Automatic annotation (TrEMBL):
Native organism: Rhodanobacter glycinis
Keyword Nucleotide-binding: no
Keyword tRNA-binding: no
Location in the cell: Cell inner membrane
Gene Ontology cellular component annotations, sorted alphabetically: plasma membrane
Protein name (record): Paraquat-inducible membrane protein A
Origin organism lineage: Bacteria, Pseudomonadati, Pseudomonadota, Gammaproteobacteria, Lysobacterales
Spans through the membrane: 61-80, 108-133, 154-177, 183-204
InterPro entries: PqiA-like, PqiA-PqiB_transport
This protein's UniProt keywords: Cell inner membrane, Cell membrane, Membrane, Transmembrane, Transmembrane helix
Main location: membrane
Length: 217
């Protein structure tokens, strides 16, 4: 059977914003996943057209490493302080999970642990695996890796749940008349982690997974 033609072989390029499929862009050549030459704007929305997201590898790695660096103090530093007349207590994410479990709220403890620990770690591992395998030109499990990226994107829409954990922990505190709750530096690093992982996912170009593959039917 004849090989299926790629979009660039057909002279087509899709706008990453509005999805309009345009004809070939003169002077737009692909080189190592990046665009060079004269750029062309989408006739519908005016966005600059690219065959690949520019500098996808470099940007994704930079954002992913920055997110990991922010994730360390996000877990080590306290995220909130609860104070009353008799006690002052600083809570990290893990200590908050432990307190919820001890207080008889195991379901909430699992939700907080999943949103704050499991999901970010899985996103780090998934994006790291996608980057390494794509840069090595691996042909292993391309379909599964493409599905993994779509899963990371789907989780990205719910990444702000990590930030809402802080509000959840605050809401679960039983206040006395003179109680006080205030955020601590861990919240800032936690929020930065969420934003940077979302940007890293957006910077990765899933088409790089398929580069170098001959598709025949």
């Amino acid at each position: 059977m004849s090989a299926l033609l790629r979009a660039d072989e057909l002279g087509l390029i899709a706008c990453r914003v509005c999805g309009l499929v345009c004809r070939n862009v003169p002077g737009d050549e692909r080189l190592n996943g990046d665009d060079v030459g004269d750029a062309m704007a989408c006739p519908r929305c005016g966005t600059t057209l690219h065959r690949r997201k520019p500098n996808s590898y470099a940007r994704t790695w930079a954002l992913l490493i920055a997110a990991f660096i922010m994730y360390i103090p996000a877990n080590l530093l306290p995220i909130m302080r609860t104070a009353s007349l008799n006690d002052v207590d600083d809570n990290t994410i893990i200590s908050g999970v432990v307190e919820l479990w001890r207080a008889g709220s195991p379901n909430l403890a699992v939700i907080v642990f999943t949103a704050s620990i499991v999901v970010p770690v899985l996103k780090f591992l998934a994006l790291g695996a996608l980057l390494v395998s794509s840069q090595l030109g691996s042909d292993w499990a391309r379909v599964q890796r493409a599905k993994l990226f779509r899963l990371v994107e789907l989780i990205g829409y719910w990444s702000m749940l990590d930030v809402f954990v802080v509000a959840l922990l605050t809401a679960l505190v039983r206040f006395s008349v003179l109680s006080l709750v205030e955020p601590l530096p861990g919240v800032i690093f936690f929020g930065l982690t969420v934003v940077l992982t979302m940007l890293a996912s957006m910077s990765f170009d899933p088409r790089l997974i398929w580069d170098g593959r001959d598709i025949d039917e």
